Amino acid sequence: MITQNKDTQAEITPARAKELLVEGNERFLARSPEERDLLAQVELTKGGQAPFAVILSCIDSRVPAEIVFDQGIGDVFSARVAGNFVNEDLLGSMEFATKVAGAKLVVVLGHSGCGAVKGACDNVELGHLTTMLANIRPAVEAVAEPSDPSRRNSCNADFVQAVVDKNVDLAVQTIRDRSEILRDQEQAGEIAIVGAVYDVATG
Q1: Cβ distance 50 to 102 under 8 Å?
Q2: What is the DSSP code string of 11-71?
Q3: Pure H helices in 36-179
């Protein structure tokens, strides 16, 4: 078990940070998670933190980032919002995670069968959910096929998946477009910004 600190974090490149998450997911799939003493990690991180990545994911209960990537306490920043879209608050959180706290990787993590995406596809209106889903509508509109309006809804699994993928792509692009800090760090090779999609059926 390694608990991240400033020294170990400094040795991790953006490419290695991505590898660490891929390796963690492979352990998760193999049912062989790394042995950790979580309370020991609480003790080791009580004075500060040095995560190697920040993961923006959906609030879906089936996609707990720390578990599916087999990470422990102090390893990753976890930001969650239904539909894993980007806004000012999340950009600020990512800027803190990388520029201030030293994380080397920004991941936008979508997932199959996303309820928020389905809601956006169906133009659901319900209280504050209406405003929230408006953040995902650009992805719905960016998916051209099918053109038949009767097939552009949550009943069409292929359409929903295409919107899930596009939503991740647009979020990654939004990070680069709207955050000079994150864009400059990526261009300098200090961080990487990537998208990923988790399959809730397979892990």
Answers
A1: yes
A2: H--HHHHHHHHHHHHHHHHTT-PPP--HHHHHHHHTT----SEEEEE---TT--HHHHTT-
A3: 38-45, 65-68, 88-95, 115-121, 128-133, 137-142, 157-178
- Residue-wise pLDDT for 97-123, tens only, equals 999 999 999 999 999 999 999 999 999
Q: Is the whole-model pTM more than 0.85?
A: yes
pLDDT of residue 37: 93
Contacts for 146 with CB less than 8 Å, ≥ 6 apart: 152, 156, 159
Residue 23: φ, ψ to 5°: -65, -40
Whose CA is closest to 182, among 191, 195, 173? 191
Distance (Å, whole) CA 149 – CA 160: 13
H/E segment holding residue 181: helix 180-187
In the structure, what pLDDT confidence band is assigned to residue 2 with cuts at 50, 70 and 90? confident
Rounded CA-CA distance 86/158 in Å is: 24
In angstroms, rounded to a whole number, what is the distance separating the alpha carbons of residues 157 and 90? 28
**pLDDT (mean) for 140-154:** 94
Q: What is the β-pairing status of strands 192-198 and 53-57?
A: unpaired
Going by DSSP bridges, is the β-strand pair 105-111/53-57 parallel, antiparallel, or unpaired? parallel
